Amino acid sequence: MVMRTSYRYFTCPNGHEGSEITKENDQPYSAMWESTSLNGMKENAKDSRGYPTYTCEICREPMEVEVRWRNNKKPKYLQNSASGN
Ligand SMILES: [Zn+2]
Known about the structure:
It is built from 2 helices and 6 strands; from the N terminus they run E-E-E-E-E-E-H-H. By secondary structure, the chain is mostly beta strands.
């Protein structure tokens, strides 16, 4: 059984963190399946490209994929909330 696990990390405008863990079956001769578990966020409507979007479980703000700013500067709203609540 070949399994692939991918992780994506998210943050909401208020600094809450969430993650999406996707487990995929890569086996050629068995049915393709995928299992996604979410932590700290809920699945929302799909965006215009058909990708699922997520909202924060705590404050219900839309979650942003952290990867978008991991190699760049954080957006201003994240810099401002650096000191926490
Ligand atoms: Zn939040």
